[in-house]
Amino acid sequence: MKVTKLHKRIFVLSPPRILTLGFAFIILLGACLLMLPISNTNGQPLTFIDALFTSTSATCVTGLIVVDTGTHFTVFGQVVLMCLIQIGGLGFMSMATLFALAFKKKISLSERLILQEAMNQSSMEGIVRLIRRVLIYSMTIEAVAALLFTIRWSFDMPLGRAVYFGIFHAVSFFNNAGFDIFGHYQSLVAYVNDPLVNIVAMLLIIFGGIGFIVMADVVDYRNKKKLSLHTKVVLSMTSFLIVFGAIVIFIFEFTNTKTLGPLHIGGKILASFFQSVSPRTAGANTVDIGSMRQASQFFMIILMFIGASPGSTGGGIKTTTFAILIGAIIAMIRGKEDVVMFRYRLAKERIFKALTITFLSLMLVVFVSMLLSTTEDHQFLMILYETTSAFGTVGLTMGLTADLTVFGKVIICLMMFMGRLGPLTLAYALGPKTEKELYRHPEGKMIIG
């Protein structure tokens, strides 16, 4: 029987479409589980829109919540959230590969293509080996962090509860989700002066945000004695943004009596660094974000928009995209034709892709912020903060999330979904397959600037 074009369109899906549909299915499944009476305290089930919002936030490793995770959900509901965070952070294809490897199943070519798209790789070479290392690194880092958290929190709560808290927050922070179960929307505010909790949480966020390719490259440095251009750019840009962000927040908030003001100098430094690391798609906080000065809040919006690094658990336009934009500006100012980083010339294709991602993302954030400003009765800075937080899959909020209208919740859900997959992946998934052009138009000239 001859297969029609319609059948081909239905059954032969491209990797971006499979990723999009896969994440959508996990979100719907998670919403159904969160609506069960066993997931909610006192048997009070969530409405569908609230369950969908929470499931989207967990699967897209964002951390925005409409109900308090620590008090509204039972242990079963919290475990469901933790599983959604782990699947969403590592990617459902990575988890599927884990089971395939466990049962010694061969990874097909189509599955390798999907893994290539999920990990944002340019080729399939060594993709299964990379996934195996991703899983090993993730489980090891989360286990060590969970142990350290358990030891610290065993002084504040029973050992069994400390173990559970340690595991949940290690998974949440490493996957840059920002969910916490301390209750009453307090996140890590109670531990603002605690060096161990702060340092472990920041390291988890940084490790989860630099990307698995970078981690693998750093681990292999002992043998290769060489780092790739990608790794050098990610590490240098990440370090710069963290240090520069901490300095800016420290200066802006130093005398703010509602944030850094009451803290001793060590606490001020810790809090400044934590609030600089967290907007890189983590979502946890040790001071009240709504009480920060507007300059600090707007600066954090910029950090959230930049986000984490490619192949990581975070969102945003990515550190490499931001680095390419800076490099292109410097090259243009200097009158250079090529963008050069660490003595490597970047292909024009990479520069165009960085510009496309940034412009699409900026237009998306601006459009959604304008849309929400007509439906949500709040200050525009608060709406812009919420929108950027959703797009960057950050999870920080100035207090708007719980007050969102139904329309606002749907829009923020879509923003979290688009932020997790990336605007280009969604464009490839929704758009038709483009064919190679066989001709070029004559070159034209325009006046710019």
UniProtKB/TrEMBL annotation:
GO cellular component: plasma membrane
Single GO term (MF): potassium:chloride symporter activity
InterPro entries, per database record: Cat_transpt, TrkH
UniProt KW keywords: Cell membrane, Ion transport, Membrane, Potassium, Potassium transport, Transmembrane, Transmembrane helix, Transport
Major location (coarse): membrane
Membrane topology of this protein: Multi-pass membrane protein
UniProt feature coiled coil, ranges: none
A UniProt-annotated Pfam family: TrkH
Transmembrane segments: 18-36, 48-67, 79-103, 134-155, 196-221, 233-252, 298-331, 351-372
UniProt-listed PROSITE patterns: PROKAR_LIPOPROTEIN (PS51257)
Compartments, record wording: Cell membrane
Protein name listed in UniProt: Trk family potassium uptake protein
Species assigned in the record: Paenibacillus selenitireducens
